[in-house]
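Marked as duplicate of an earlier ticket. Keeping the data here for the record.
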Amino acid sequence: MQKLISIDLKADFGFFRKPDANNTINLSYNMLHKPALLGILGAIIGLEGYKELDKDPDYMNKLKELKVGIEPLNHEKGNFQKTIIKYSNTIGYANEHANFLTEEATLIKPSYRVYLLLELENEYHSKLYKYLKEGKAEFLPYFGKNEFYAWWESWENGFQEYEEFEQVEKAESSFVVKTLIRKTNQPLKDQKEDTMFDFLNFDKEEAYYTYFERLPLGFDDKFKQYQLGDFAFTTFKLKPDTYFEGLYLIKGKNYYVQLH
């Protein structure tokens, strides 16, 4: 049995480290991505993390088939405010003759509505459903660093169940996707705008925008590095002939989410 739910994950701060850095400044992804989300969900139901460098963590093995969608909340046109936090590392192997100084571009009050398509016959999906609905966790979830603990509420919109939904290949009319979207046949940056956005069907009083970011999809099994994909978050309506893999209509809400 499939169950579509969402939770609103929040934290005071967040840092989803990018593997590349500019000198001593470490950068964070702006959006929560699937590998980080699976780690959070794994912590909630008590799955172990990294223990050996050449082996995938337990949460990845148990949850990698879970379909998820991510919608940013309380943001400025897709962006979260950031602040630079400076750290001094005095561990001996980090420096020889002086303290090693580093800086991190840290997200301020990041929050995301996370959609999960659960298969309740799966014991880990079933446990996720129970724990998220009851607001329980085995390990404290956090946004990238263990001092940036995360939470969700089990009231109001903190936890939602969607009784009527269906997967569709294409929408029947211009449509809105509430989550981050990804084109799997070619990068979004290579798409012609007139094949995707419906510029004839919009409210002139609204300030529409599109946010782009290249985000991790998973891990390369050989090199143990992130596999990246091109994502966008937009308030524009999309043309009905626009194809997205994993597109779901949430009936009654009259909007779509993309789950991958």
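See parent ticket for discussion. The first strand starts at residue 2 and ends at 11.
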